[in-house]
Amino acid sequence: MSALKRVQQWATFARIWHIYNAAWQNPFHSSELIKKYLMGMHKPIYHPMNDCGDHVIVINSADIALPGDEWKKRVYFHHTGYPGGATWTLAWNLHEKDPTMIIKKAVYNSMDGNLQRRYTMQRLHIFPDENVPKELLGNVSNEIRQLRPMPKRLDDYPEKDVKEFPKVIDYPKDYVLR
Amino acid sequence: MTTLFKIATNNYIKSVFNQAQRNISITSTLHLKKINEIQEGKDLVIYGEIVSSEREPYLLKSNHSKACPLCATGLDIKHTDVLILSQFVRKDGCMLPRRITGLCKTQQKRVTYLVAMAQKSGLMPNLTPAYSNKDPKKRYEWKKYNKYFDETTIPFKL
HAMAP family, from UniProt (chain A) (predicted)? Predict the structure, then answer.
């Protein structure tokens, strides 16, 4: 058994810790990705009855991005069980109350409702920013690749780069700069 | 009578158009101009200035004779390409009209959509009106959260 195969063997049977940066990511597309690591579906030994799931740390969950106007169109429903106990909360309202809730619900809803789901969710650690406790961060050995590239703001580019970027158009000769 | 009228109108037209209308000038009348405002104590000094374009050395050369500048590049522009989109807006983030951008109709409409998308995502916060608070995180209610857009939703297809 080669060294690589041996490490692969260890990694398969141990609980690996993954980290995922959720900044500018769609939580509902990300949840399909995170779910696979949480349940261990990326391992060749996967079986629903085989408890081989990994841990996933999600950071920057406050900076998730939703497409278009989904922040005010997506609604979270809750019913207390009493008459008139129904409430509908908009996604941006829920995100304001708890910036980890949207991604947590997205991962929870992406999995089948069976007895394992609650225990699988215990292996998901979500943080609204980059401040992760050191004892958790020390376990991390893999970073899950982001689904969409993080956009860069215009004021984050150095002024020289903006000025010297190739220009598509020039101003007409009689133009008054504003 | 009609001949008399004709002569009179001819004379009138001549009198209007015979005025010395010089289309030739020794120096160039067309320059890129810039208006500066300087507050000196109580006085506000406004003065115009002839400037040379900062973009000229970095202008893309195109071999196309007919295509508009953006079509000639053959780029598929996304709303996150702020370095390109910022070339089509004024300092306050207002889109330049077509007579100034010189784009074709489709590209002008597409760029207008893309600029709006970039602004709603808060990717060009330094190109905003003076009354704007500049920070996308301080926007009202749902507008303060990150959002992205799908370019296929733009009704103007290339």
Answer: Ribosomal_uL13
